[in-house]
Amino acid sequence: MTENSIKFGILGCAQIARKVSRAIHLSPNSTLYAIGSRSIEKANKFAADNGFPETVKIYGSYNEVLNDPDVDAVYMPLPTTLHVHWGVLAAEKKKHLLLEKPTALSVADLDLILEACRANGVQFMDGSMWLHHPRTAKMKDMLRDTQLFGQLNSIHSTSTFSETEEFFDDNIRVKPDLDSLGALGDVGWYCIGAILWATDYKLPKTVCTLPKLTCNQQGVILACGASFDWGEDGKAATFYCSFLSNVSMDLVLYGTNGSIHLEDFTIPYEESSASCDLSSGANFAELQVGWTVKPVKVQVASELPQEALMVQEFARLVENIKKNGKSPDGKWPEISRKTQLVLDAVGKSIELGCKPVDI
């Protein structure tokens, strides 16, 4: 443990906590300090299964983690229905909050968490790891190059995977009392977030879900899609998310002079490097028997996995608050809130029978 390490506590033993606990270990300015579960037996098993060092404190309740004065920040991968209670309590205990997505069941619920964070001067960030990969910054540079890419006018995103019968029977993401947003909240969060990221978080004017919608017997969404319209701005977007399709993580950005395409935007094929295909200035060859320009593969190296980069950035912000008296960075709660706002609009459109909803 280095002197300047931010000490993390983890609330809950969800599968994603395995990845983030590893990320905390890999991050040079972070230390895994404590893990808490609903029982000490479950917490001990999680720690043993993941090879946690003996220095990690093991607690049999979430409250014990929040009451530990040495914990600077908490990572919270709890079911979405529990986010308001434990997120607000974490902020009131002055613990900086790295909250797994979806952040809440509604923007009204998220506002309760964000207000608690603001009132207590703690940093908030959601767990959208892909935003922290250097490829994402590289793509933003390309998007802003008007000669290379032109003006953005269309976006398409997918995030899907196919699961086992056990998943549909037991996983919290298909349980209405735990994560009632289903696929929309889980993988749809990435799609909506990517679309907003591409537009510099300018909200669409209208959202409309596509007629193809699949829910389980309890009404939890297993697959859905939607279209977004920016009105006079001229941009449009579509997305599709599903627990029922082969794995896909596509993001395609279309401009007036170029396009960017990647097939692994939420989880890169490899930890150490990621790529995207860039096509710029292409046209059809004579007689339209080919293209004048082939896409170029743009490769971007990453010294750390994207989840470790996320933890590192979050810890840097926490350290600036703790040691340098800085204010929390408002960019991250704003990104989460806008994503949640659009997600709510998609849900409202579903409730209205796939009718358009204005934002």
The number of helices is 11
Structural class estimated from helices and strands:
alpha/beta
Low-confidence segments, ≥5 residues, pLDDT <50? none
List the helices and strands in order: EHEHEHEHEHEHEHHHEEEEEEEEEHHE
The biggest beta sheet is recorded as: 11 strands, mixed
Protein name: Gfo/Idh/MocA-like oxidoreductase N-terminal domain-containing protein
GO molecular function: nucleotide binding
Domain GFO/IDH/MocA-like oxidoreductase: 138-260
Family: Belongs to the Gfo/Idh/MocA family.
Characterization of this structure:
Strands 7, 8, 9, 10, 11, 12, 13, 14, 15, 16 and 17 form an 11-stranded mixed beta sheet that branches. Helix 1 packs across helix 10 (306-324). The chain is built from 11 helices and 17 strands. The model has no long low-confidence stretch (mean pLDDT 96). With 359 residues, it is of the alpha/beta class. The protein is 35% helix and 25% strand. The N and C termini lie far apart (47 Å). It folds into 2 domains: 6-130, 3-Layer(aba) Sandwich (Rossmann fold), CATH 3.40.50; 133-305 and 340-358, 2-Layer Sandwich (Dihydrodipicolinate Reductase, domain 2).
Label this structure with key terms.
alpha/beta; Dihydrodipicolinate Reductase, domain 2; Rossmann fold; globular; eleven-stranded mixed β-sheet; 359 residues
